[in-house]
Design a protein that fits this description.
- With 309 residues, the protein is an alpha/beta fold.
- It has helices spanning 4-11, 15-22, 25-31, 40-52, 69-86, 111-128, 143-156, 171-178, 203-219, 231-243, 261-269, 285-294, 296-307; strands at residues 56-61, 95-99, 133-135, 161-165, 184-188, 223-227, 252-256, 274-280.
- The protein starts with a helix and ends with a helix.
- Helix 8 (171-178) links the parallel strand 4 and strand 5 (184-188).
- The protein is globular and about 45 Å long.
- An eight-stranded parallel β-barrel has the order 1-2-3-4-5-6-7-8, surrounded by eight helices.
- 50% of the residues lie in helices and 13% in strands.
Length: 309
Amino acid sequence: MLTTKTVLLGASRRPALRRALVGTPVTRRVVERFVAGETLPEALAVVRRLTGEGIAVTLDHLGEDVTEPEEARASRDAYLALLEGLAPLGLGPDAEVSVKLSAFGQALPGGHDLALDLVRPVVEAAAAIGTTVTLDMEDSTTVDSTLAVLAELRRDHPGTGAVLQAALRRTEDDVRALATPGSRVRLVKGAYDEPPSAAHQGRRDVDAAYARCLGVLMRGPGYPMVGSHDPAMVDLAQRLAAEYGRTADSWEVQMLHGIRTDEQQRLAASGTRVRAYVPYGRDWYGYFTRRLAERPANLRFFLRALVSR
């Protein structure tokens, strides 16, 4: 039986539907809630606003469907331009960047080496302005390659971050392996449609796995990044931080730009370090449809906007 999530994730890979929605003005207006514009100046304006409100940011230049090496090199260049744009703001680690290795050619023939070669100068440019890069995690088939790239980058830049998805059955082992001094790990539930052999399927099972993984990170000597909008998980993170004597600057909560913004501001005002995941760029369709798949509330918001145009 098809679920809403499965249908929406399937829609993210349908070119005809992509063309129809991208060209619809009402869709673009709704997307503005989640995406910080299509251009770098628009994204930097959002960065200045959020950081002025006490919210740190991680920026993602959208563009995952890379089919040629030239497109992968264009992704590298877009991130180098982004870091060049961030430099004058002097935000340091309050403005980092997130990259998907698929945008750097990971899925192409010889893509592992290509992605490593192209992402390395981005990591170096981030370090030069006093900030970091986090490697986003994609579907389960890419985990080994992504963690191998991470290990190579951490040889020279140990602050390079990683994302782990609690829904994947392997993640508890990966969390233990990465819970090391200085290791930055963003723990999320997971937005990809995975088979039962690779991932927990029920919400309760995913929540339980998230809680177990979060406990490992909070007990460890690394820097946990709690990627969740779930109040129960954020509350658990705060309790664990208190239990293990974590200082406010030794962990953070991360939420998506445009989702639970009032809660982001409340947490920041209360002393919790908060970082918004801020995507921008013209290729926003895949990102947008996955956000709809993740939370029914996002889909309801979109449908209300369509009927009220």
